[in-house]
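Input.
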Amino acid sequence: MDGVGDSEPVVRFWKPHGVMTAFTDHEGRETLADYIDVPGIYAAGRLDRDSEGLLVLTGSKRLRGLLMDPGIGHPRTYLVQVEGIPDRGALERLASGVELKDGSTLPTQVERLVEPPLLPPRRVPIRVRRSVPDCWLRIRLTEGRNRQVRRMTAAVGHPTLRLVREAIGPVTIDGLTPGEWQALDDHDVAALWSSVRRAESTSRPARAQRPRGPRWPG
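Output.
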């Protein structure tokens, strides 16, 4: 949809733990096809098999392309259960940028939650050590490297135990349960497009100033 007139469906889906972000799998593992029966739609981005939460699926190549464009920086928000209790220094490192093997991460918004979020139990329980406390963070990224959240929390000494994507721009998992999908109405689709366009327009000046040459890995 480059405007409200696009008829391509846009679906939000709460991917359960253990489900592949694909409609087929040669190893016989659970896929999106086990849950979604809308033809002609594909995931705009992915979640690892051991991660949970929001996927946006659509038949619009334009929308998928923009949502997956690493140069646009469209926001994604994650609920992250980590081992241990991060101190101020660890939170500041996550927020300002963590040095990974493929370069430093961009600044993020990080919040340590006072209470655990209201989430259904994971169908495969997490492994916890009774002698080690844990806590929940809310992390908002504008980039999408492979297993980025897990690598970031590990880099500051707090491995991720459970990862749930809560939102992609204005689209959230609110009102869904694991394995449930819902088609977005025109208002929600328009809000998503507005969010994408805003991120795209914000990214243009920065991209124009980047030196030409090989892209930074990741």
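The longest strand covers residues 160-168.
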